[in-house]
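Bug: token stream looks shifted between consecutive jobs. Job 1:
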Amino acid sequence: QVQLVESGGGLVQSGGSLRLSCAASLSIFSFNAMGWYRQAPGKERELVAIINSGGSTNYADSMKGRFTISRDAAKNTVYLQVDSLKPEDTAVYYCNAQTWTRTSWGQGTQVTVSS
């Protein structure tokens, strides 16, 4: 079973940037896709962005423009660059990895944006 470890979260001021990392214990090419999701307090988990094994990316409509997903295959790591952070971006950000038969999740990393 794959282990996914997120890092890079923290407290940042509105307008700032963060780069979140998701390190996988297996080659990222083991998965059909990897993605970032977030869950704000009192809300359901929502998709931010996904990147498939071919490198194609997709973003939730509300996330286009300030979020960028990328990967480094040599490091088995997927990144999420978040720019122009807003207080409403405050959430736990989760990484996931999908195969045909299984979806695995990391433990999440907290991002808190102060106004």
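Job 2, same session, no restart:
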Amino acid sequence: QLQLVESGGGLVQPGGSLTLSCAASGFTLDSYIIGWFRQAPGKEREGVSCVHSSDGSTYYADSVKGRFTISRDNAENMVYLRMDSLKPEDTAVYYCASLDPFTTVQAMCVIGLVSYWGQGTQVTVSS
């Protein structure tokens, strides 16, 4: 059974850091794009960052570029999202997702053509 399980969310002060983890089971990462999406209250879900597990190509939304870093460990079937310089507007539920690599990482991440979703983890940035 394919599963994506997120962890690492929580409450952090503005300017702080968090690292989200996504553990994949039931499939191997190395043929998929894995992404982090987020949804804030009253807003649409957006693609934050994605990585192609095979060639390592990445995409970052403009709102997080320079502050967030996505990485993967194919041997451990894990994907991470390091979030630095967090802002209150980063507050959202963050979801890990797998996407079939039909086209570029950027296109897939922006379109959000997700095959499987994790259950989500809450990130709250507040003083």
